[in-house]
Amino acid sequence: MTQTNTTDNWPQVRQAAIEQLPAQVVEFIEQCARQPHPESQLISVLHKVQHHCGYLGEMQLDAVAQLLQLPHAKVAGVASFYHYFRLTPRGKLIIRICMGTACYVKGSERVAERFKEELGIEFGETTTDGMFSLEPSRCLGTCGLAPVIMVEDEVYGHITPDQIPGLIEKLMVQAQQKQAYETDSQAPNRK
Ligand code: FES
What we know:
- This protein is α+β, with helices and mostly antiparallel strands.
- It folds into two domains: 10-81, no CATH class; 93-186, Glutaredoxin (3-Layer(aba) Sandwich), CATH 3.40.30.10.
- It has helices at residues 10-18, 23-33, 42-53, 58-68, 72-81, 101-105, 108-119, 164-186; strands at residues 93-98, 132-137, 149-151, 154-156.
- It has a four-stranded mixed β-sheet.
- A hairpin with a 2-residue loop joins β3 and β4.
- α2 runs antiparallel to α3 (42-53), α3 (42-53) runs antiparallel to α4 (58-68) and α4 packs across α5.
- It is elongated.
- The two termini are 24 Å apart.
């Protein structure tokens, strides 16, 4: 699917596009599209979509391209160029492993390796069940607890590789609860 509202089925194309995005995001994009240079709004639009959808998937990128009347390749190119845009869904919980100096000298690399092994993913990836993403982090400001990881707002200190399987089990319960809560709260509509 590519853009252009010169197509004679524009109402259907627009409808298909807006179904991919929350109503307030569609409203924002359509405001941008009415401005003289909609392409200059592209980064703001992508930020907004990511903020509401969590990531920029193919369907969302295509919807943006349609509604802003820009080539899909341009939208996808900008989304993939900037590291702060995520092109894949994130897990229910983000496990951040501090790779700062204090943590590094206390073994954060071994902690990271064990997480990768247990979860079957690398940094920047999400488990196939969508529960966990793994990310490296700069100093989390709690060097006295090194090595440190952070999950949501909670800091876990003095982590050893052997603690990780048990910790993942505990975090799985938390991730499932979060998923159930989100499913309940999003059930009526996606606005
Ligand atoms: S280096 Fe890890 S918390 Fe500071």
